[in-house]
Automatic annotation (TrEMBL):
GO terms for biological process: enzyme-directed rRNA pseudouridine synthesis. GO terms for cellular component: cytoplasm. Residues 49-173 form the 16S/18S rRNA aminocarboxypropyltransferase Tsr3 C-terminal domain. Keywords: Cytoplasm, Ribosome biogenesis, rRNA processing, S-adenosyl-L-methionine, Transferase. It comes from Methanomethylovorans hollandica (strain DSM 15978 / NBRC 107637 / DMS1). Aminocarboxypropyltransferase that catalyzes the aminocarboxypropyl transfer on pseudouridine corresponding to position 914 in M.jannaschii 16S rRNA. It constitutes the last step in biosynthesis of the hypermodified N1-methyl-N3-(3-amino-3-carboxypropyl) pseudouridine (m1acp3-Psi). InterPro entries: RNaseL-inhib-like_metal-bd_dom (IPR007209), Tsr3-like (IPR022968), Tsr3_C (IPR007177). It catalyses: an N(1)-methylpseudouridine in rRNA + S-adenosyl-L-methionine = N(1)-methyl-N(3)-[(3S)-3-amino-3-carboxypropyl]pseudouridine in rRNA + S-methyl-5'-thioadenosine + H(+). This is 16S rRNA aminocarboxypropyltransferase. S-adenosyl-L-methionine binds at residues 25, 72, 96, 115. Residues 9-38 form the RNase L inhibitor RLI-like possible metal-binding domain. It is found in: Cytoplasm. One of its GO terms (molecular function) is S-adenosyl-L-methionine binding.
Amino acid sequence: MEKSRPREVRLYLYHAGQCDPKKCTGKKMVRFKLARLVEKVNAIPRGSILLDPMAEKALSPADSITKGLTVLDCSWEHVEAVFPQLLVLDLQHRALPYLVAGNPVNFGRPFKLTSVEAFAASLYILGYKEQAASILSKFNWGHTFLEVNREPLEEYSMAKDSKEILKVQAEYI
Ligand SMILES: C[S@@+](CC[C@H](N)C(=O)[O-])C[C@H]1O[C@@H](n2cnc3c(N)ncnc32)[C@H](O)[C@@H]1O
């Protein structure tokens, strides 16, 4: 029997305190109660998907999101040091496939997404398109992310598994 699908995905933000909280998209999501702030690394829900730009496996519709989705909001300068430390925890590390930033600071830059963009891309790929649009709607540039990535996002959301995601990605790189 098919597992029941939650109506919305639970979103968790672990904030490493390395960026300006006024500009941080993750902190803004927490203020709007769109994501729950996790204060300690050990409090990240076990079994949840951790969006890790260095992960070997790509996120795909085959992933189970029943335990939720976690973004680690840290400075890009520290990504290579921070993520490997979390490999000891029971989390599903997943990288997002090729997508470009839609925010005005890094517009058009591939792979390096803000926290809200990473959440929205994941939700879209996992079939939670309304929730993706809803979290982006709190940012005046948010709709741009979906507009510039609509085609790959649609294709990724129809992929069977991580291998198929990589095949689709190859069309765009
Ligand atoms: C490095 S932080 C920077 C956040 C930025 N300070 C902000 O205001 O949104 C962005 C986080 O989003 C997730 N993320 C971004 N791009 C990603 C990718 N290509 N694959 C997987 N996760 C990604 C990761 O959890 C990453 O640590």
